[in-house]
Amino acid sequence: MIQSDKLVWLSNAQNDFIHGFTGEYIKLMTSDNYHSHWNEETSKQYLDYGRYFVPAREQQMHIMVDLLKGLPQPSLILELCCGEGLLAEMLLDKHLDSSYWGLDGSALMLEKAGQWLSRFGDRVKLNTFDLADRSWRRLEHPVQAVVSSLAIHHLDGEGKQELFQDVYAMLAQGGAFIVADMVDPATTPGRDVAADSWDEVVRERSLELDRNTAGLDFFQREGWNTYRYPDPDDIDHPSPLLDQLKWLEQAGFVGIDVHFMQAGHALFSGWKKG
Length: 274
Fold this sequence. Notes:
By secondary structure, the chain is of the alpha/beta class. 44% of the residues lie in helices and 19% in strands. The chain has helices at residues 5-24, 40-53, 57-67, 86-94, 107-116, 157-170, 188-210, 214-221, 241-251; strands spanning 75-80, 98-104, 124-128, 143-149, 171-182, 254-262, 265-271. Strands 3-2-1-4-5-7-6 form a seven-stranded mixed beta sheet, sandwiched between helices. Strand 2, helix 5 and strand 3 (124-128) form a beta-alpha-beta unit. 41% of the residues are buried.
């Protein structure tokens, strides 16, 4: 339960605009009109194999949590494509006076997140959405942080630029935008390095977690390595890291920085000037 009167007031304000979101907007953003090739079978595969596929998964989540140490409290943290709620759990455990709003396009992911985060009670709100649809970005109240992991690469370059601008608008002064995502290598040799490195990461994770290569075997058999198996019709549209840092700057962000890079995956952030 939320204890302080100040946080109760903030939580009520958050509930007001979140419930407004679920009322009118949710009709526009059900899974029936979720315009992505990602489906519930893909979600199930990711739930089963994501622990092998994400480079330094735990380290990246810890970095994201640590970057928000100075966030004013109480705060509302919004996560885009929250998945099963692993990052959310770390954020809520670390930032005890924060509330959390998780959005995802998968009913399965939201169901798993609801189960995983149930112990946090009314500190957590979960809703379905379409990442590319701009209607959900019109918030009645600002949020103090927006985080996203392995989601924004599903948007093309123009879509990312629009999202960065909209996130800047929805942030409170001094708010943070933290992104962990795939990026597009600038050269063919760079793409080859990313492909080889990602295979090696999955091999090491498979051996570390299960002492066999079943995770790697699935990864290679299903062609998950975008850098090795590029497909113009794929749902993955990573953009060069340098371009994305420039787009953050053009949107108005300051303090732009890169905190992690491995196997074509980067973690970077920007801040809204306080």
